Amino acid sequence: MHIDLFFATFVTFVVTSVIEIILAARWNRAYFRSGVLVFRQVCELPSDVQKLPEPEVLQARFTGWVMPAILFRSLSLDEIGFREKLMGFHLISYTPVMHGHIEVDPVGRVVNVSGRLNWSMMAFGLSPLALLGTSFAAMFGLFFLGLVVVIYLTQAARYRNVSTALSTIWSGGV
Fold first, then answer.
1. Are strands 110-117 and 70-76 parallel, antiparallel or unpaired?
2. Alpha-carbon gap, residue 85 to 26, rounded angstroms
3. Alpha carbon separation from 67 to 88, 115, 125 (Å, rounded)
4. Residue 74 and residue 115: Cα distance in Å, rounded?
5. 14 alpha carbon, distance to own chain's centre
6. Has this prediction a pTM greater than 0.70?
7. Under a CB-based contact definition with an 8 Å cutoff, are residues 111 and 42 in contact?
8. Cα dihedral sign for 4, 125, 71, 30?
9. pLDDT at 133
10. Would you say 30 and 89 are in contact if contact means Cβ atoms under 8 Å apart?
């Protein structure tokens, strides 16, 4: 095994994760707008609506003990960032693979709900490179890929629920 390469990928993962946690916890606008786009859903902005709902209105719809709460925060007048709560006990828990961003396109009268791949997932994805030449490499790579796909599908369903919640709020539903 290539110890130097393994150490370098591990350090890259740890440093990237720490930076990402700090930026996510501080609701850094640039962080929520960056990353590889892996989810996008477009909602129509009703003609009588001029702005996004308050983040607290959305957040009230995504609390619970079964899965991590989704937290929402205004990043600007036309943007809301969202992510799973970083700490807490839940029946089902997972390491998120993406972070969310809601942005109004006033010209097109639509709202884009997007999910961008977390930086730490990209850094962790480098780990199999350190194991190249070992019989463990392929097994680890396939396991990692399968795990990421399952978590992505879980988060994508939750992000679709964010789009649904926006439509419900705008239509006056509860």
1. unpaired
2. 13
3. 10, 18, 25
4. 16
5. 18
6. yes
7. yes
8. positive
9. 62
10. no
Higher pLDDT, 129 or 45: 45
Distance separating alpha carbons of residues 3 and 13, to the nearest angstrom: 15
**Which residues does residue 39 pair with via DSSP β-bridges, in sequence order?**
115
Answer for the pair 79, 101: CB distance below 8 angstroms, yes or no: yes
User: How many CB atoms lie under 10 A from the CB of residue 20?
Assistant: 19
Residues ≥6 apart with Cβ < 8 Å to 40: 112, 113, 114, 115
Using an 8 Å Cβ cutoff, are 94 and 70 in contact? no
State the pLDDT at residue 6. Answer: 72
- Residue extents of the structural domains in the chain: 3-170
Name 13's Cβ contacts closer than 8 Å, sequence gap at least 6: 120, 123, 124, 126, 127
Give me the sheet containing 79-84, strands edge to edge.
37-44, 110-117, 98-105, 79-84, 70-76
Q: Report residue 123 as tokens.
A: 């850094």
Cα separation of 43 and 126, whole Å?
35
Residues 81 and 99 sit within 8 Å (Cβ to Cβ): yes
Q: Which two tokens stand for residue 135?
A: 């019989």
